Each structure stands twice: as structure tokens, then as C-alpha cells.
Amino acid sequence: MAIxxxxxxxxxxxxxxxxxxxxDFFECADGKYVIPNESMCDGQVDCDxxxxxxxxTCQDITCEEDAFRCKYGACVGxxxxxxxxxxCRDKSDETDESCKDK
Length: 102
Hints:
single chain; alpha+beta; 3 helices; hormone binding; Vitellogenin receptor; LDL_receptor-like_sf; receptor
């Protein structure tokens, strides 16, 4: 299998179709990279085309019990909630509504 791992950002260059068929990877919509599934819908954009954080990709994700679900569906750690840092792409972790009980 011909893939190259870019360690700094956890991207795997998709040089052939077999790399996108790995069960633990998500293929970016532009086909340029595949990323580990755990990097998908985590509040951080890894794909150049941002498909790993899109509404469509993240809408059916189930968050861990200790995570906050962003309005678009991604999951970020509850410790990131209301910390004055936008961890969700849509900034839903810093809204008045999200922070009212904090």
C-alpha cells in the first residue's frame, strides 16, 4: 500500500484507492488525504477541504459521555466548554446558551 504519513497533523496522503478503504480512516471529500477516524468531528479541521468537520459528516456522530456536542455535530471535551476559546467550528461551545449553567 502506497501511503505517506504526515505525523504533525495526522494526515495520510491518499495515493491509491486502497488507503481510503482502511476501516479506521476517513477519506477527505477532495480525495487528497485520509485521516484517522478519531480526528474526524473533533473540532479541529484536518482535511484541506474541511470535510472532516462538515455538518454532513458530523451529524450522526455520537459523543463520549465526557464531551460537549457542537451544534454542527462535532464533539469537544467538556473542559473546553466556556473557556473563551472557540473549540467548535461554529463557536457553539462559547455561546450564552451553552455557558448559562457554567
